[in-house]
Write a structure and sequence with these properties.
This protein is an alpha/beta fold and 252 residues long. The protein is built from eleven helices and seven strands.
Length: 252
């Protein structure tokens, strides 16, 4: 049974402050619940396909969905990533996550704001926007439909940027308003100019080579099969899967 537990006692101790309070009721085995969540999301399984030793799949799925709605997994990532981050240099980028036909084909209920799934030339996708530190450790995420531009994600993440000296980004983020916004925050942009610019933009090419670390971060996230392919209809639940993966990979 011990082989099925993914988290050590020390790791559980670091995560426990983020758990919801039981309010006097018997509390579920948090380690068992988190282990099944990791097992299912890492291997891309249906909840009912996980080993029975984790307990009834319906009970654990309900815990996963309830905790996702409460923002538990986002708080776990935020609480553990901030102390260990090295934000002297930060990076921003976005990647597309393929949506399975089940969440993308079903009709929306009336009043539902949407599932953040959009049609692109590669099919139905969700786009994940991310800011990382200089080592590629995630600091913040933002999720949109697949056809949304990188500028939208950059604008949404601006307010959450930490104090930093440099921002590394590819030429997809080359916009005067974004450069001005960074400089107002005291951050120097290291962003190559678009080829359509009349006047070339100077940037530190040596420093820019470190930008591959955010690409490596995306690659490691996509090792989790339920992150690389979106099976969840609810965007909050899918976003929690991303935060859960980032926490286990980079923060524990």
């Amino acid at each position: 049974m011990s082989d099925l537990f993914w988290l050590t006692d020390e790791q559980m101790g670091r995560l426990r402050p983020s758990f919801p309070k039981s309010h006097g009721r018997p509390h579920v085995d948090d380690r068992r619940v988190l282990s099944r969540i990791i097992f299912v999301n890492r291997n891309g399984l249906r909840w009912r396909d996980a080993p029975r030793e984790y307990g009834p799949h319906r009970t654990l799925y309900n815990s996963w969905k309830r905790w996702s709605g409460m923002g538990i997994f986002m708080r776990m990532m935020d609480g553990l990533s901030a102390p260990s981050a090295e934000p002297q240099t930060i990076m921003i980028d976005a990647t597309s996550l393929k949506a399975h036909r089940n969440p993308s084909s079903m009709r929306l209920k009336k009043g539902n704001p949407g599932r953040l799934i959009g049609r692109t030339k590669d099919g139905m996708n969700t786009k994940l926007h991310a800011v990382t530190d200089q080592n590629g450790q995630p600091l913040s995420f933002f999720m949109t439909a697949g056809q949304i531009s990188d500028y939208t994600g950059a604008a949404a993440l601006l307010d959450s940027l930490p104090m930093a000296q440099w921002m590394l980004a590819d030429r997809g983020y080359d916009a005067d308003w974004f450069r001005d916004a960074l400089e107002e925050k005291g951050i120097r942009p290291c962003i190559p100019g678009r080829r359509s610019r009349e006047k070339p933009v100077k940037y530190d090419k040596r420093k820019y080579k470190c930008r591959n670390r955010i690409e490596i971060m995306f690659g490691r996230l996509k090792d989790w099969r339920r992150v690389a392919t979106r099976y969840d209809r609810c965007p909050t639940v899918f976003f929690s899967a991303i935060c859960r993966a980032a926490t286990v990979i980079f923060c524990l």
